[in-house]
Write a sequence for this structure.
């Protein structure tokens, strides 16, 4: 799976309230959540983000409450991948569960600027910055996690597997 997108750059400790403010947690639809993604720290984000764009951030991205709304809002806003120095553990798991690829790569996070264009090869664990020409290496996802991401998340992955088993059992 290959992603190419413009970078939206954020700093350290971007918490889930910054990603999707708590006042919107009564909304359950992904499209509704996307309309408010990052609005308190970057009011122009929701009107300018394009499908396939990439968020790059510092340490501890997604800290705070364990709500799944945060990665859902990011994915529904059109972000194809998040690259950060590190993630809050529950955010990392929630992102994988909903099919949002997230990579840890401190060097890429440090050396990438807002507006850069990154090309990300998830299978190879490679992130290439179009402005600098530099390629950064990170751990690729194991095949099972890649299958979950490609399916669009854990629920669609499980449905697909259950359907395949049912079809084979008949």
């Amino acid at each position: 799976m290959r992603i190419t997108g413009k970078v939206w750059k954020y700093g350290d400790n971007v918490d889930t309230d910054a990603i999707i403010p708590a006042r919107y947690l009564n909304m359950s639809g992904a499209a509704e959540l996307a309309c408010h993604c990052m609005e308190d720290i970057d009011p122009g984000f929701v009107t300018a983000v394009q499908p396939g764009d990439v968020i790059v951030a510092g340490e501890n991205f997604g800290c705070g409450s364990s709500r799944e709304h945060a990665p859902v809002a990011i994915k529904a806003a059109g972000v194809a991948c998040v690259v950060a120095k590190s993630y809050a553990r529950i955010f990392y798991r929630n992102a994988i569960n909903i099919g949002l690829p997230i990579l840890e790569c401190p060097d890429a996070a440090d050396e990438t600027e807002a507006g850069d264009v990154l090309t990300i090869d998830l299978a190879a664990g490679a992130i290439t910055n179009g402005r600098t020409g530099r390629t950064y290496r990170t751990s690729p996802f194991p095949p099972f996690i890649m299958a979950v991401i490609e399916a669009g998340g854990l629920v669609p992955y499980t449905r697909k597997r259950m359907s395949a088993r049912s079809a084979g059992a008949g």
